[in-house]
Amino acid sequence: MTYQENIARGLSRAYAEAPQLEAHPGSLKMIIFSDHHKGRRDQADDFAACEQTYLEALAYYQEQGFTLAILGDAEEFWENRPQETLPRYRSVMEIERTFNEDGRYLRFFGNHDDEWCYPDSVRSNLEPLLGELHVYEGLRLQFPQLRELHAEIFLVHGHQGTLESDRLSWITRAIVRHIWRPIQRLTNFRLTTPATDWRLRHRHEVAMYNWAIAQSGVLLITGHTHHPIFPSHAWLTQLIDRYQELRRQPEGLDDEQLNELETEIAYARQQIQPCFFNTGCCSFADGSITGVELADSEIRLVRWANSGENISRKVLDNASIFEIMGRIQLPSEPISDEIPSAIDR
Q1: What is the pLDDT of residues 112-127, one digit of tens each?
Q2: If I label 73, which of 116, 134, 248, 309 is the partner at 20 to 30 A Cα–Cα?
Q3: For the chain, which domains are there?
Q4: Nearest to residue 157, comparing CAs of 279, 295, 288?
Q5: pTM
């Protein structure tokens, strides 16, 4: 079975098993964050630099009445145990708890925090900090106003079908939990992931896009790759501008960076349907975080940046949910995950 077929099979399983929740574009207010990778505040903790930015963002969304959706990999359990991580981020848990108490909190598990797929672990580790909680694998937001379009948004972390999730299920979750994860922690063994290898990231994002265009009226929102995606002309223009700027640098060309941008530009040009979005992550090294907002009948990609003096929110791109849902009804062909040949430089 090919890589794309594995990802499609995993997403299809999660989609078929996902509960459905009715929503209304005009009244929906949701912020979707993912991939915090909270650790134990050591040098390997990717979230530590982003904590203040995240707290400021949560204060804003709490005041504005948003639902907070955490789309997986909130904690880093490939390297740490829950008891090593959760107590070190009580301030984050305290403000997240306020969303949960207000009935405006959705939690999902990813591959790095798949501990939360076990209800007993949720009860013993998460609920004392957050209150009574259900952790989802996937969730389907359906819009009665758009019933004639059969339109819905599918929220899922995006690791489904990869080696460490569905394809290791044959050795049972118990063995993954009690043997595989401890071995990873003890040996510091790391699988190559889309978050650390741009070539794998490209292949994975193409696989998720191709799954989404094969569904009728489904808008897929994931995390996992740490790579913000908002398919639009503005996104393509930004990529081309970045590419041209890199080529103008006097110190010479960085072939690896150029090849990565060439691949991303080719991918952006092929995306005929705006059916696949990615939140990015809450663990950028510069202390910034990105997320996807669903509010005011719009979908928005936002970035919260920390200059050291102030923390600010910027809308990077936005579009009408109605317009997006109308466009993803159109038929489209799958795209190739091949890395394009280098452009003549």
Answers
A1: 899 999 999 999 999 9
A2: 309
A3: 3-231+271-327 (3.60.21)
A4: 279
A5: 0.92
